[in-house]
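Example 9 (inverse folding). The structure is encoded as follows.
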């Protein structure tokens, strides 16, 4: 099943599309992961084309099993500006994740994409039935906290650090 979600324009910001990742997204994916700020906040980052290719293959396989529903965020179906994902974790619950490429930050893209994905994930029964979404970020990642709040995710609890994968405390925001 191919799912494409539309995000209407917001003021001067263009309309966006959330679509499955494709092989021709490889250069944009590698370029985005070269950004030190992005690497700072991600649990894993891609260091080159081979890893990016494996990541793209894993996204496609996970879609087929409905275990990770990831989307490239694009404007006019051009090069990806970011990424949003829904990862079912237990019955009715999923974690939402996202990132925005350095050149696309500060334009409201993350909030618009996360909000659209959240509405879809809670409203669709086509792929997986969800009633609760969780958005987790490091305590010091203030932009992610603002995106969570803007998208209707309430702060639920503080998550203790779990090095080495999660070296700092985190916030868990919830949207039902």
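The amino acid assigned to each position is listed next.
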């Amino acid at each position: 099943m191919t799912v494409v979600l539309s995000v209407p324009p917001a003021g001067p910001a263009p309309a966006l599309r959330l679509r499955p990742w494709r092989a021709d997204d490889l250069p944009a994916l590698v370029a985005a992961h070269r950004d030190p700020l992005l690497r700072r906040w991600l649990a894993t980052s891609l260091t080159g084309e081979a890893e990016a290719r494996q990541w793209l293959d894993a996204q496609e396989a996970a879609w087929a099993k409905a275990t990770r529903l990831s989307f490239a965020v694009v404007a006019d179906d051009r090069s990806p500006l970011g990424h949003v994902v829904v990862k079912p974790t237990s019955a009715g619950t999923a974690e939402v994740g996202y990132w925005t490429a350095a050149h696309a930050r500060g334009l409201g893209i993350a909030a618009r994409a996360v909000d659209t994905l959240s509405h879809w994930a809670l409203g669709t029964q086509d792929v997986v039935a969800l009633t609760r979404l969780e958005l987790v970020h490091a305590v010091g990642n203030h932009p992610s906290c603002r995106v969570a709040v803007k998208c209707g995710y309430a702060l639920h609890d503080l998550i203790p650090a779990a090095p080495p994968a999660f070296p700092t405390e985190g916030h868990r925001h919830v949207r039902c």
